[in-house]
Structures are given as structure tokens and as C-alpha cells.
Amino acid sequence: MGEFDDRFACADCGEVLWEGPGEAPAEITALGEARLSCPACGSTARTGQSLATVSVGMSLAVTAAARQVVNVNRLVTGFVSAHNRFRIAAAGNRPGDTLYPLFEALNWCVAADARLTKDSAHADWTTGLAQCDVDLVAALRGARNVVHHRWETLLEGTWTGDDPRGSWAWQPMGQHALLPKGKARYGSTEYAATLQGQDVERSLDKLRRVLLAQTSARASDIESDATTLASKPASP
Question: pTM here?
Fold first, then answer.
């Protein structure tokens, strides 16, 4: 048995068969892939492969050294850095340029949520938060489970023609092809109430507030580190 920070979804309908963090089923750790029967459509087709499977045959447990590097503070710093770049592009009415930091910011959110879940003493790290924040995180998780990192399938640009003034908005989750017909998915109710039809920039602002409150550092230090990170040249 090994630990994964990933998920396996049915190749036919997209139903999530197993999702980390936690202990993966023996079918996954032994074979490097999941061959689980899908309860939604009955398919036994090979599912999506986790990045962690490249380590099959080696120890799959996250080492203590890795945990020190991949911590909540650094993950939230990555999100804030991407969010800052998204804000700059949005303020400059450059919709094309917002796409890159937007996808990056959303994936940093997912990574931070997974780390917070793994490190939490509760079943869910959102325990004790205001209900609006609990619903926001649940909505993000629901969106992630549907898109599997293909965020463009739930995002819609509100600008038209040659007018660059506009923003990104969350589309109805039910339009997505990977959502099994007639099957309620985790977070779908919260998504419809919290994100659907809403401006993506405003939702990122709210997620920023929620995530910054979960770090062990002062928000000002995270902000400073994010600014420094954005100014560093990319490694070759």
C-alpha cells in the first residue's frame, strides 16, 4: 500500500474511483494503474494514471524532507503569486494573458487544499470555518472533480468581439460531459450556489482570504514572498 496525492477517474465517464490524499488501493500500488469497476457506468477500462505511478517499485510514501519543502505556506505563496499576475492581466484588459495565471492559480488552490487535508487533525480542514467558506472550498473541490485540471470546460469569457473588457465566469457544472447523467456529484450543490455564474476573479479573491488564514506565517510575509517569487527568472 502506498500514499498518493492524486486521483483515478473512469476513462469512459469521468467518475472518480479513488482520490488522495490517503492510502491507495492495492490494485493501484501493485500495478501502477487502477482497474477498478466504475459504479457509475460499469466500465473496467483503464483509468487515468497518477504521476506517482512513475515511482512504482520504489517507496511511494512522501518523505519527511519532501514534506518540509511542499508545505502549506509555499503552496499558498504559489497561489498568491499566480493570483497577483492574474489581477495585473485582468486590470490591463488582456483576456488572453489572464488564462495562464488563472489556470496556475486554480491548480495551486487544489494543491493547497490537498496538503491542508493531509495535515489536518480533523476529517476536513474546513471544520470550524464560516459556512460560506466551507461551501466555497466544497464548490472548488466539486469543480476540480469534474474538470480533472481542464478548467476551461467550466470557464466562460464574458468579453465579446474586439472589446477586451470583460472577465471569466463559472459555467453551470451540469453542462460538462464528464458529469454522469442523473448522478449527483460531491460539491455540485455548493458549486451551483457559490460559483455558478459568478465572476472568477471575485471567487479567487475569496479563496485567497481563506487560504492565507490557514498558513503559519503572517499574511504580509506570504504576500512578500509571492512578490519575490514572481520577480525571479524561470529556471532553465
Answer: 0.68
